[in-house]
## 1
Amino acid sequence: MTAMLVLDILLVLSLLSLATAALATNDARRSVILFMAFGLVLALAWGRLLAPDVALAEAAIGAGLSGALLLTAVRDQAHRALRSSRKPVHERGRANLRVTLEWTVTLLCIALAGLLAWALAQAFDRAPKDTLAQAVSANLAISGVSNPVTAVLLNFRAYDTLLELAVLLTAALGIFALGPARPGHRAAGPVFDGLARWLVPALILTAGYLLWVGAHAPGGAFQAGATLAAAAVVLRLAGRRSVGLPTGHTLHVAMVAGVSMFLAVGLGLLVLGRPFLGYPPAWAGGLILLIETAAMLAIAATLVLAFFGGRPTPAPGVAEKTS
Amino acid sequence: MAETLIWLIAMPMAGAVATLLLPRQSTPIACVTAVAASLVAGTLLYAVSEQGSLSYEIGGWSAGLGIALRADGLSALLLMMTALVMLASSVYAGTYFTKAAARARFWPLWLLLWTSLNALLLSGDLFNLYVTLELLGLSAVALASFGGKFAAVQAALRYLLLGLLGSMMFLAGVSLIYAGYGTLDLATLTLAVEPEPVAWTALALMSAGLLLKTALFPLHFWLPPAHASASAPVSAVLSALVVKVAFYLLVRLWMDVFADLVTPAAAGLLGVMGAAAILWGSWQALRTERLKLLAAWSTVAQLGYLFLFFPVLLALPPGPARDTAFGGLVILALTHGLAKAGLFLAIGIIQQRSGHDRINELNGTAQRLPATTFAIALAGVALIGLPPSGAFLGKWQLLAGSFASGQWLWILVTIAGSLLAAAYIFRVLGHAFGNQSYPRHSVTIAREEWPALILTTLAVAGLGLAGAPVWNLLESGA
Amino acid sequence: MLTAHWLYGISGCLLLALGLRTALLHDMLLQRLIGINVMGAGVFLVLITVAYRGPGIAPDPVLHALVLTGIVVAVSATALALALARRLTAEQDDG
Amino acid sequence: MIEVMASLLTVSGVGFYLAGSIGLLRLPDLYSRLHALTKADNLGLGLLIAGLALHTQDLLIALKLVLIWLAVLAASAASAHLIAQHARRRETQS
């Protein structure tokens, strides 16, 4: 018990100090790297709190892909975006105002943390309300899968997941509308190439495994999609231009695969006289796997697009710019 | 009948997918989707007026384990307003974006925004509301930056960051609710919630997030640049609908789910912020030099009126008196939505025809674009709150309620705000009706001008002269 | 109330406040964005802590699913923000 | 007996980790730090995994653990190379 307590305290302290360090520095690259480390420790915390599904997603998406996105943003100097609009403060009165503002906001934030912690403590002090968790386990047998988290994500609260895929699609379309992709990376040396050569197939294999295993153990479409996207990011970093991602119309198909498969299943069932997304228990497992496969493709396509930062350009003959 | 609820969400979403997959046919697909979704919204309105509130359990799972969609009179009316504004703006957007490639990129985002608006108005689950808020925020930002102009992208980025802050506050409140009550379903929560620290901390967090999204003074600073630098059909929808659905959610939480918690002091705070918004927003609208900024600042002010209703409603005894005043709030919100959308569309026409929207250089607009100028005048009638517009009925209820509860301050603010609104509207009209020395023949472009004209006419005549059904509907759908 | 609830719950609240402070006060976009992400991590930590019932007891799967959804939504928003920022700096450098 | 072996392996693995971390903090320049980190950590992880594999006494899990070790070996070798190459390039440029 005490060993666990020591681990808990270590975890919590490193979380807080990493977050503070990431936010206190003015160096953008340092901040991003510390944030990635924060994400990895957070994944450990999820594991400690018995949330392996979340730990997998955090490691892949929260630390990995977010980190890759933020790092390329630093490379593109995107962190300067809002800065120029603020003029440096010279006058004494303005500087005093700024200090007052900082203190007010800081005190308000501390008050907020205290209030939240106090209310949370009151909520914990009551008998835990397990009604929903019990309802999940009572209906797990007819949900089509045996991993309760997957059952919630793709059956009981599948509508949330449908809207979440719509959020991903919206982000991709928004990025699309802003213009073409940034120039690629220069070709890596033989060592990284060699790593990519076996890492990419291994990642694709892992993605397939995660998708399949999600039905009865931690894993699922989101973790699998993120792993697939990671494979593409590795290829891109190795200097491959289009990383096997389709361009033009086929890319659109990949991006909307998740939403359209969800809608097709939901509306199909509605037409057959069942509720929207009300799978018949006998088919539930198959339908969920179908939706998850499409969702994995959409997630991977969207995350890779986000990493590209725009529409991929189909002009492989042109020499690539290096930055 | 309950299936209409899911169709209202599935239809625009399917339209978004279809426009993306068939970019060449995207404009006809979008128009068909818009008409169909509006018909479904009309059907829902009729169904709610006949049968009272409706609900639909997605996947057949009971609410709690699953997610339920619900529609009562309030949400049905707002859904109808959303449909009208989106339909009219869709028709206008089809002519506004002249390049087919731009249209093909625009429609999917547009229809996703519509999906999120409908989903938010129908959702009966707190976490699902968080997801719809994010969908709404992201699609609104993507549309606000559409076209990629520097000012628009900059405003959109700030809009996105503040929207994300708001959503995170909302989510923090949601997690507290789940910790305390073990449910996310609004109907279950309404019965379970008690006036205790867990509930009011959660309500405070969620409200803070939503106030940021509704741009209530002093959290309004992101709104004018974002709304004024977007393209015209997008500005129309941002000002008329996007801030309004966040307000709807506040009303839902304060008047319905957490009604037992709301104290006069809290409602009074909202009222004071609303009063400040009215005065400051109207003043800024009067001072600005650009027509689009004027419309955006006017949105800040008009949202303020909606918040004045909070202390007034709370001071009235529950029952017919409060219900009548509540009808005034709804009709004011509906009128503002229709009128402001029409105003932005009309401004878009002027901006495209004359290449600018500087108020001082509007001379001759009435000669060149008579129908558009008329639409602006009609929108002005609604924004000032003159009879016979719906806003007159709304403000009348606000004044009557303040009078009955002896809250004189709100009466003064309302009168001052209306005078300021009259000043900024007449300033525009004065310039627009100013004669231009050299003659220009007038043009009328039906497909461009009709949407603005219809929306503003509905705001003035439709809601003003036929306001009674609104009260009936709110009653039957309660 | 378990010790783990105390420790992780309070850390979640602190992370939320820390992220919020940075998101409001920092004048560089990237740190603000990371601040919002840290804020999200705080909320997720609160949610996962609420789901935790103690060693050897199955935690609440509903909250785990909610956090999974939240992580994906957060990364979408981050990606859009970074794309907007990239566009802004590209134009600043051109003009 | 096996338990004792497993514990010994684990503890010595942790010892290598500690040495690597101290090296990271104390050594003067990037190359030697990289050297300390990758070598010590790879060996440390190997011992740790050997200890854990003995501890589980399940062939499938042990196999998975060894796979993890191989993946980390390849990744850390490649990334150490990349970092060193980058630093070298920068030096020759300036």
Note: The mean pLDDT of chain C is 91.
## 2
Amino acid sequence: MSSLLALLLVPVTGSIVAAIIQRYRLAERLVSFSTFVVTLLFLIDIRVGDAFTWSLGFLGKNIEMGLQITPLSIFMLYMTIAFGVLLTFFDLTERSKMKSFLLLLTLAASNWIFMATDFLSFFFAWELMGWASILAIFGGRRTAESRHGALYYAMMSIGGSYSMLIGIFLLSNLTGSFSIQQNVSYLVSIMTVHPWWVLGIVSMFFVAFMVKSGIFPFHTWVPYTYGESPDGFVPYLSSVMSKYGIYGFLIFLPLTLSLRNVPGVLGLPWPNYTLVWFGSITAVVGSVLAFMQDDVKKLFAYSSFSNLGFILAAIALFTPIGLTAGLFHAFNHLLFNGAIFITVVAVISKVGITRMSEMGGLWQKMPLTFLTFFVGIASAAGIPPFAGFGSKWMIFQAMISHGLIFATVLLFFASIASFLYLMRAFHAIFLGQLSHKYDNVKEISAIGKITEVFLIGALIFFGIFPGFILDPINSIVGSFGLKPLPTSGYEYINGFFSSVNMVSIFIVVIVAFIFGFLLFAVSAKHKKVPQEDNYTAGQIPKDWNLTPEMYQFSYDFYEPMDKEIAPFLKIKIDGFFKGFGDSVEYLGSSIKEIFTGNVQIYTYLAIGGLVIFVIAGWIVW
Amino acid sequence: MIDFLQNWIYLTGAMALVGIGLYIVLTNTNILRIIVGLNIVDSGTNLFIVTIAWHPKSVMPIYTATNNLVVDGHVVAADPLPQSLVLTAIVIGLGTTALALAIAVKIYQKYGTLDVRKIKEEDK
Amino acid sequence: MKTYNFAALLVGVPLLMAFSIPLFGFISKQLAKWITVLTLTFEFLFSLYILLWHVYPFNVIMGNWVPPFGENLYIGSLATILIVVISFVGLMISIYNLWSAKYGDVVHFALLFLMFVGGSIGLISTGDIFNVFIFMEITGISSYALAAYGPERRALGGAFKYLVISSIGSTLYLFGVLLIYTQLGTLNIAEIAARISQTTPGLLTFAGILLVAGLAVEAELFPFNGWVPDTYTGAINPVSATLSGIGSVGGVYVLIRIVMTVFGKNGNFVSTYGNLDLMTLIAILGTATVVIGELSALVQTNIKKMLAYSSMAQMGLVAMAFSIGSRLGAYAGIFQLINHSIAKAMLFLILGVIVSFGGERVEDMKGLWYKSPFLAVTFTIGALSLLGLPLFGGFWSKFALVDASFQRGGWYDFIMAIVLFASVVEAFYYLKVVGYIFTSKPAVSEKIKVEISPAIPIAAFAILIIAIGIFPQIVSGISYSAAHELTDKMSGYVLNVIPTIVGH
Amino acid sequence: MVIVEFLIKLSQGFGIGALALATGLLFGGIARKIMARIQRRYGPPFTQNFMDLFKLLSKGSVSHGWAFDLGLVAGFVPMLAALMFLPIGPFTLFPSDSSLIMIVYLMMMAYLGMAMGVLASGNPNSAIGMSRALMLMAGYEVPFAAVIFSIYFFSKTGYLTQIVAMQSGGFMNWNIVKMPLGFLAVEIVLQGMLGEKPFDQAIAPAEIASGPMVELGGKYLGFGMIQHSVALFLETGIIVDLFLGGAPNFWIFIAKQFVLYFVVVLVDAILPRLRVHEATSFFWKLPLFLGILQAVIVIIQGGVLNV
Amino acid sequence: MSEWTEIVDYFRGRSMWMLHYCTGCGAIELPPTMTSRWDMERFGITPMATPRQADILLITGYLAIKTLKRVIYTYEQMQPPKWVLGFGSCTINGGIYWDSYNVIERLDKYIPVDIYIAGCMPRPEAILDSFVKLKEMVQNGEAKGYEKYVKNYEWYKANQDKVLKRTKPVLERIEKVTKIG
């Protein structure tokens, strides 16, 4: 009971300490790391079903507030906190501009979100997390762009939370309670009578969740924000914070179980069907936009919300396999996105830029980082036997089992497209020619190396033993009243159409690799040549004043595709929001003209207002 | 309760003063004229206050042997309270006017004009 | 009916000290400043005593003229909490003035300031509708003069605009009061409130409109708020803080007292007597003010003007909250009023320190974090509190406001949607400034040195904001009982003043 | 016992790999012969590819570092691994894991490895070639996905072995009869998968010096050749299993594969190369249309699965 | 071991990939050699795009000094075993450019040539004949030009340097001249 409170109090205390000592960067980072570790230690003590309640005399009512641990929340808690431990451990030596106290405040808020049993504390924590992350992003590059990024995020996020606020009060006025469980069960009970009502209320919530997760059409803030936020904060933002929306969706998705009599498509109630399409479109939009990115952080921002689209599409089905697949992908996304962003952060910290076309050839200098990144993108592309394959594979099966072939094809396209942009990033950052600028670049510190080795290990381990994650997920699925998928051992993934033994695949791949290296060893010897010794059509590089930068092809890598995806790029949701903002600003500048600074105009206004009142009074007289 | 509407001449006068005052405030750009306008509005208000205190048939509100304050069960005495109210109002109006004039003097010192439109231009 | 005549000192002491300050001024200018501080300390402690020892509600009856025959002061829970806030803000500003009051006539500045605070306290505590007019004029005259202070000539223009609009407003108010007087023959708020239903509805409607129009000038509601941007911008920053933190509190208080207590018709949701529901009128005015204020603030490049427009918009929000008419709505309004008063006064004071080192354009806020972390953090706290983000006071009031309006339902849902949209706009420009503070390099790297005298009030305000954010009970309890005073006028107000009266 | 089983599987796996490699090389040789005959040449002997591979493995080569080596090994190894899950005629090494999507993703790992290797060489020609290959992949994988998902939905299983088993019992049970449009789409896709004209932008020799292979020589080129040959076997084999009902024995399996490949070679012989974006968008037009049409038909036929 | 070498040599002879370095008019003879009239692919000889992949370097025609530099670079980029075919009289003795100040006379002073094809122009039959000849030499283990190059590298290098010095950038020389002047 007290350890539930500790999950909130420890980060807050840590945050205060970190805020006080923020001038001493190393101490600040140590505090941040140890806070995460302590929180994790408290978490170990916590079991499903633990609860803690208190009441708050507010608004003249006595509001029951509480914390409670459900299978879903403990899953989410482990994910966020364990990832935070890893990230802060990595940050011990990296010079990131991240303000640790804001990160810790975000942690407290996120713990609270996952444990809240009432909408009041849910909203409180949600907003707390919102502004802590906004301020954290402000600390990014300290440029006008960084400001715009954070402001864009802030606007979307505040708009979303106001939408949620409206939803909360519409709901609590119906039930007279803030308790999540009571409200949801109330919604279930009126579902058959007023389905439109319920959908209206729930969609108010969904707007907030979609904004936070960056689901189409609210994805536009993601690249700006990720591109500009502090390097150390991006992994947390993309791996952990994007999952809050998914958690929110899962609060309300059980509603759809009682929706079976609503008209649907292919046996799927249409609200679910719509969400699946939102997810699929997000996946595609993210991938397509990532094609053309040159900024590495932005590229992986697109990648991030594209993967969120996968997760949403899967959980929106709300079938056992769909839910399992979605949660499994959420976990895998946490891992591989963490691996990718941590390596990206490591590279950025060494190279000092984020434009990929100016990097290249870094594998010679940072081999371990390179390998981590390789394993990360292999996982992201869904290649067996790494983590990431299983969940993608299950998502496809979940989708096809409903006959959603178009959505599945879209998702598959997104998956292929993700392979494309991952390769492009891989090439542009690590492969190709190493510029002389980076001759002095060193591999990251020992702590960074430990983190990376750990991440590689985790990606492979959870790839071949998915059961360690699928077991808790099954208990979550069970807690939603669905029948969990059958389990047959830690190495099996059981899908709808087929099951796969990951260990046997792993062994086959390993044996094949052994054979491959044997073949490599027995065939004729090779000669190691430097990167300058390259095919140049007979031209001698030195005579030609050829520099490695000139011999690196990575700018506009997919230029021919411009023509093909131009129609996609024309749909500018971004432009809509920007145009909306501009119109508001225009409106503001017109309204401002009322206050001219001339006292007579003001008097006219006042007298005019009075006359209108009098006329109005006259009419009703 | 005083049926003050019987004093319609005075009431019209009060309203007219307020209207004239407001008209001056709205149409004149000179600060001094605006102050005069405000003063006229004040006068209108004061007249109104005094007017509501009596009607042509009312008597003074002092009890003497010949002065019947109550006729046929109705109070016919004039209301003494507005007299005190109007004093206060006059004093306050005076204070406001004095301050306004002081500000006007300062404005003329700083801006060199008393035209509100020119002051607005100068501020920009 | 409880009487506690000693509390007349609340109004008497500041006015007495105000007019005796020139005497002290002969001795030393510093003494005049310190007298202000001491007087307001007394005010604050005394009001705190009334609040904490639960002395309220009580009447102050002069010369045994029992209301409704004599003039009285009534200090209920609403008046208590507002007096505490006003005297606290006034005390803080007076401490700030120890540093900032350098221009011109320091002694008379102190005089006017004390007169303003005393007038505001009188305004809030008086139980006589004509005395409201007198106190309004006292605060009015002192604030015109305060607004005209300062080295810049635009202060004069602002003060003059304020004077003209405000004079017209008080004239309208006076007309309204007199119309009611012709009907009921009394000026006591409690008696009028009890007997309001006896009046001719048509005349009452007309009187109500005149009263609302007149009071909307002080409460900064559109279209009677033309003076706000120019006066706030023109005045020196402590005066802007005073106007925003004290003046607008008084203005809104009177508006709400007249409309809800005097005109109010109790019910599930308070409405008013007369043909036109004044609550609806205020709701419309409030919403229009919020929208116009926030949108105008959005495009400002002058930060002081931005704060002025924001102030206006916040007052619209407060008025809108009261107009819901439920106890929760009134609670939200009071809470929001307190939060706004504290936060906005703090922002103006911070601005005063910054302006003394540089310009007051939005760009001049760039890199404040590097110049002075203290000011940067406190400014952020104030801004976030105004935006209603959690851990800061503003969260609770905005939360209650949304709750109240959704409980009311009907067209308040749409009003709330508009208001929330305006809040997003507000978030944009405040966060833009916060972004400038933290993300830009300053144009000049000169550090801002914050002296002890301005630092005390700013820090005190910031701590108070966070304290309210974490423990809303500090103000929520008294605010909630104050809300009761507004929504149930007979038991909340009238019977406490005149126990024998029979409601109609 | 486990060890014996493992050794048996190991030797069987080697056998499958060798067979597939031999078949792929043979197909390549035959294709060169066919091509020569279409161009009224004599052409090389059909064993030419074996000799080429042998020579390449015995020839010296240059390496650009360990990423280059690792990438090229990883370029052909997953292809061999994927082969182990393919039902070849009646025989499947791991029948319980023969999930179609898993095989497709294993093949993708080969592309990833290959890309890593050739890009590590630092030659811009290989980067251009790789970008073209990947763009083409974005094209053809979409209709392919539409078709394989239709088959999933139609067969209600994801195991290749079961898909094959469902088609047993004569020509009329083959999926080619049940889903002709899907087959057509896949046959067009196969052209792109194998990188034959008109979809050979990636290795355009006169334009970008054979693209990804520009820095490969000796054994590295040999690895590339192994990859291509095994991929040829694997891809045609998948289509045979999906549409042509598998085969009762190995020879018929190869014959069916050859029929598929023969069409590809003929098309290759007569068509010129398309431009890069034209090729990609081609796959998003006709084959995708066919695939989607097939999917619609399947959904209408099959209704909804009982979940 | 020698059997193994023989097997290897046999397959090497049957699969020779060619990089043609076309400097002069001789390039015109290659299309007929490759296409249906003569069809060199029947010997397992295919044109290749880069030196990394090729076994044969076919040099068709005169080599200006500037070109020679590229030829040497290309030759060194090829991996052993590799063979050079000199095509036409220009590679043998300069041909019609025998007295040019800027064209080398004998190719095998600079890189080891395994077979010269005489004539101006040699016909496709002659090219094919040389291929067959080379194949036999390879299979008999006689074509060891690349080993000769490694063994006598100093000599080749000296010859190369002697002519390549002339290709120093013109501007640099002018600078030197003006300095002396």
Note: Chain E has one domain: 2-180.
